[in-house]
Amino acid sequence: MRRSFIFCALAALDVGVATAQASSAPLRALPYTRFVLPNGLTAILNADHASPIAAVDVFYRIGFRDDKPGRFGMAHLCEHVMAEGSPNMKQPQSTFYRSLGGTSRRFAETSEDITHYYVSVPSHQLETVLWTEGDRLRHALSRADSATLAAIRPVVAQERANFENAPLEVAGSRSAVWFALFPEGHPYNNAAQSPLSDLANVTPADVKDACGPYYVPNNAVIAVSGDFDPAIARRWIEKYFGDIPRAAPVQRVSVGASSLSAEKRLVVEDARQTVPTLRMVWPGAAYDNPDRAALLALASCLSLARVASDGHFASVGVAPPTALGRLSKLLVQDRQLATRVMAENYDVQHAGIFEIEIHPRPNVALTTIETLVDSVLASIASQPVTKEELALYNGYNAVHLATSLQPRPARADTLAHDEVFAGDPAAYVQQAMRARSLTPADIERVRRKYLGAGRIVMSLVPAGKLELVSKPELPYTNATPPYATRSR
Amino acid sequence: MTRLVRTVSLAAVVAVSHSTIAMAQSEPPRPPAAPPRPFQFPAVQAHTLANGLRVYVVEDHSVQVVAVRAVPAVNELSDPAGREGLTQVMLSALSEGTTNQSAAQLAAASARIGTAVAPTAFTTVTPAFEAGLALMGDMLMHPSFDSLAIERRKAAQAASYRTINSRASTPARALFYALLDGREDAVARAQNATDAGVSAITRADVVSFYEAHVGPSTISLVIVGDVRDADALAAATRVFGGWRKAATAAEPVATLPAPKPTTIYLRDVGGDATYIYAGNVGPRRDAPDAFAAEVLGTIASSRFIRALRDRRALVYSGVVSVMWKPASRPSEFFGSTTVAASKADSVLTEWIALLRSLRDPSSVTQGELTNAITSRVGVLWTKTDGPDSVATRIVDALRDDLPPNYLAQYAAGVGAVTVPAVAAAAQKYIDLDHLVIVVTGDRKVLEPVLRAANIAPVVVVDSAGRPVASQDGP
User: Fold this and answer.
1) What is the nearest CA distance from B196 to chain A, expressed in angstroms?
2) Separation between Cα atoms, residue B292 and residue A152, nearest integer Å
3) A167, A171, B111, B441 from A271: Cα distances, Å
4) Is residue B11 predicted with pLDDT exceeding 80?
């Protein structure tokens, strides 16, 4: 669920598209060079000399969905092993990178679909980073020995504890939705934070067997953005990755579509929560699904507040005007029933989640909120989304396209992501172009197609306050994670 | 047949082994380090309008983007006691309507240029810069402060505090600041803010706070990106030049209590999660040894991860650093982490040993120092990657009463730090006799473990830091 608006809307654009009125001007992708080494490694280079930094992002097609039953969490464990260094790197790569003046949000992450390793460094250190990443791949999982695994397990356990101690609003309740949407046996059911018992007896051989086939050049994409000469960077990539042998093609488990035939009502109780939250979720569109643009536009028409989640607002903490968006206007502005409304289509590689999340004011009944949300959604049939609303959406998109791709790490991440998820490093531009041709009829079509009766309605309430559940007379499942009652 | 296959397989294995050996021998060596490029902060053009409004402009024409920030001379440390959240409510209420435009009209105008324009910030494409600036100006200069709008913003601020206070780490952090700075200090009050305080805020509070503290002489305007200096200044003059309004900065005064002997303050919050905050008062931002303290923090943090995560696997993450405050206030030299309750004693023992070793004058090596300096300075390029990042860095500096191009000084200052300077900073700012150590978690597990470890006296406290009865007796 790491992809959302930010990554649908990353691009450089021509000056003329500054305003919604001018949003028909052509969009322009980041300039890049793409090549594939004989061993199958895909490389994407985006040179830009504005600032002397270089961002490197290496994606491997291995994620939670590749975990096998009884070994959930293996892809994540392998990420930790891969981050412990290599025969020629006697320290964790992150420690080494910091000593070069490098920085990264996390240095490595595992999601449902991929694992990636990323860093930004002063550009004179680019060759060293490419050597390091080449060494990481060349000697993949070389640190998978008993001592290292014994050291990593408690660290992973503490990471798991951090997840469990995060507010359920942002962590546990989302997992509950995820599990309801992707039932047991579905590859996306593999929990991001899996039972630690699955990893208790993992041996070095288990690790290598499980992940080794994925850490091969023909299963990797490297993207580099920043201040470098593309010809020289290409030579470095050939030098440090080129002689790593190609391996057998990776066979990943196929991912079927998710669907819900009827409404599922869930309740999550949180001892730390004092005001309830309502979350309504439908199966949405995957990243490369042509319907994704229309669903994002629909989300935007319901809640333009999501633009306020941009990084620079997070840093200054002062919200922009929020009186637009049908749900936001009704619930936050006019009726003053909620403090925040978010609508979004989150996506992974082969699935999506269309979600509406409402944070009511204290003492406002979730039942009231749910009824109003349903009435707004139903009213779209008789009061279709207008061309003006779509123009506003595309206007925001156009500006966001330009502003979001300033940092080199975002560029490298976007290019690699789109190569892996859509087979085209510039897929984001195609998505933005597709959004521009949307009509009100397109929005109505996806509303009917996706926002049907099969959905999840989740009430997140203070522990023990089940009377606050939305429409409590309807049957529901209490999906409170077991750890939430134990650890709070 | 079987035999033949076996032979072929063996041959293949041998061939692969040889090839592996050959490859290992020919693996590309680590490339030599390229010469670093000295850090340069982009040139900042400073102007002051006739009405006192300061304008800082940085030209960057590499992207067709302009980042604009208005930096008021108030922040969460300016909130009056009992009105925590007032600054945030006042600033966000500016977007809820002006004497010229309703909230809906502001939102529509903002949407028409495809830019979320907040009263203190927006980032947009070049052609929308002036329209965005005009909107920002209207919000800053002509707020209507509609009562309902203020209630909306109060509700949002209260929700924000509820979210913060639902995080497992909050009790430890809030208690740490309350004990270190004193509960009445502005920093501690900000860290301990609740939705109850927000409910006490009235429209009159908002209006008088705005009238007292927001005006051209207390606002700095930062414009970074694809706009010429002269054009940016002209635009700022057009929007703000006619603004006449007296205002004064809110200057919270630090009132720190005298340090107390090192003590472990244990607060029972139940549950599995244990959070530890430990530290003491650090240098002021303008202290001569501030850069040495900064490097010391980097070295301490690196050692922390190496010792507690890489070697002992006691923690997943953690940090030790200097938490800088505005130049008029001392910083905090502290660290924080989360750990399994049963390991809290081991973590603290390792942590204090680490701090003690840093106080040894011969402890820090030249190599360690070089890595720390490279780390601190090298990352500055990434921190100034594009107009948004540059604008953010300037805002950070101005909020801390530092010059807008402070990072240039910073790079030079950090680059000049020596091993003896770090050692001296360690002696001065790591005060093992006066550490405030806060541990929150399950008292049943933690109290016996911490008492048995005999690291420091253990005092069980409530959320206000007041001692409560020990399990062993009053």
Assistant:
1) 12
2) 33
3) 10, 14, 39, 15
4) no
* Closest B-chain CA to A49: B62
User: A42 phi and psi, to 5 degrees?
Assistant: -95, 130
Is the pLDDT assigned to residue B356 strictly greater than 60?
yes
Q: How far apart are CA B112 and CA B131, in angstroms?
A: 10
B32: Cα within 13 Å, side-chain hemisphere: 2
Q: Does residue A26 register a pLDDT over 70? A: no
What is the C-alpha separation between A115 and A85, in angstroms, rounded? 16
Q: Identify the band that residue A314 occupies on the pLDDT scale cut at 50, 70 and 90.
A: very low
Q: Given this model, what pLDDT does residue A378 score?
A: 94
Shortest alpha-carbon distance between residue B237 and chain A (Å): 23
pLDDT band at residue A24 using 50, 70 and 90 as cut-offs: low
Interatomic CA distance for residues A148 and A201, integer angstroms: 13
CA distance A407 to B269: 40
CA distance B257 to chain A (A): 30
Q: Print burial letters for A408-429: b (CB count within 10 Å at least 16), e (below 16).
A: bbbbbbbbbbbbbbbeebbbbb
Crossing angle (nearest 10°) for helices A440-450 and A366-382: 130
Number of residue pairs across A and B with CB atoms under 8 Å?
Answer: 297
Tens-place pLDDT, residues B269-318: 877 789 999 999 999 999 999 999 999 999 999 999 989 988 888 888 88
Phi, psi dihedral angles at B123 (to 5 degrees): -135, 130
Q: Do A321 and B37 touch (CB under 8 A)?
A: no
Q: Which residues of B touch A124 (CB under 8 A)?
A: 34-37
Interface with chain B: mutation pick from A6, A10, A19, highest number of B CBs within 10 Å = A19
Transcribe A261-312 into DSSP letters. SS-EEEEEEETT-SS-EEEEEEEE--TT-TTHHHHHHHHHHH-GGGGGGSHH
Tokens 């001392």: give the residue. Answer: B330
pLDDT at B283: 94
CA geometry: angle A322, A326, A332, nearest 5 deg: 45
Select from B110, B127, B377 the Cβ nearest to the Cβ of A320. Answer: B110
| CB-CB under 8 Å, A339 with B156 | yes
Q: Give the pair of three-digit tokens for residue B53.
A: 């409004």
What pTM does this model have? 0.89
Measured between CB atoms, which of A321, A324, A329 is closest to B95? A321
Task: Check CB contact under 8 Å for A12 and B63.
Answer: yes
Distance (Å, rounded) from C-alpha B305 to C-alpha B310?
A: 6
Residue A76: pLDDT over 80: yes
Q: Which residues of B touch A165 (CB under 8 A)?
A: 168, 271-273, 338
ipTM of the complex: 0.87
A 10 A CB-CB count for B446 gives: 23
Residue ranges and CATH numbers for the domains of chain A are 15-27+256-484 (3.30.830.10), 33-241 (3.30.830.10)
From chain B, the residues in CB contact with A123 under 8 A are 37, 381
- Beta-carbon contacts of residue A214 (< 8 Å; ≥ 6 apart): A60, A61, A62, A66, A250
Kindly report the three-state secondary structure assignment for every residue of B146-196. Answer: CHHHHHHHHHHHHHHHHHHHCCCCHHHHHHHHHHHHCCCCHHHHHHCCCHH
Residues contacting A18, CB < 8 A, separation 6+: A398, A399, B113, B114, B124, B125, B126, B127, B128
Neighbouring CB atoms inside 10 A of A40's CB total 17
Q: Which residues pair with B274 in a beta bridge?
A: B339
At A4 the pLDDT is: 31
Q: Give the closest-approach CA distance of A270 to chain B in angstroms.
A: 10
Nearest CA distance, B286 vs chain A (angstrom): 24
Cβ A121 vs Cβ A100: under 8 Å: yes
